[in-house]
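Lab notebook page, bench 4
Experiment: in silico fold of construct C2
Operator: M.H.
Input chain length: 168 residues
Purpose: comparison with the prior construct
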Amino acid sequence: MPHPLVDQLRFARFEWMRSLAGIDDADARRRLEPMNCISWMIGHLADGEQGFLLRRQGVPLAVPGLNDICGYGKPPSTPPLDEMWTAWRAVTRATDPILDAFTGDDLLAFPASGGSPSPDSNGTMLLRIIGHYWFRNGEVQAVRQLLGHRDLPDFVGDMGAKAPYRPA
């Protein structure tokens, strides 16, 4: 059974997909400055998971070059929606085995990053990824409202069924 924090990440991913249901390429690539476009946000979350979970664990990147398109601090871009969903799915498939293997002790570990120990544990990085999903999810909802989209999710979904509290 995965660690409870892994359940929470998977729930955040599920809610992310629920929030983006029905978006088309034109709206996903529309940039309402200073915010980035929605397709960029999808790739950005994939890039974050890739960096925090693959690179830090010494695993090859699932989507090389993704950071150049939608990495933190890079110039704004409006990548195609289908390409970003494909990248996101490739990254989440690649990170799932790592997530499934994490134990409580693994989450307390500080893996090497750039040749020296990371200042954050795997558990802290997992919390950061979860928070990143919720941060971007709120931003996506704001962009979609500004684009005139209706009938959007208005609250967190069924956490009790998908990721209820349980001890580690």
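Observations: The longest helix spans residues 122-146. The CA atoms of residues 44 and 70 lie 5 Å apart.
Next step: discuss at group meeting.
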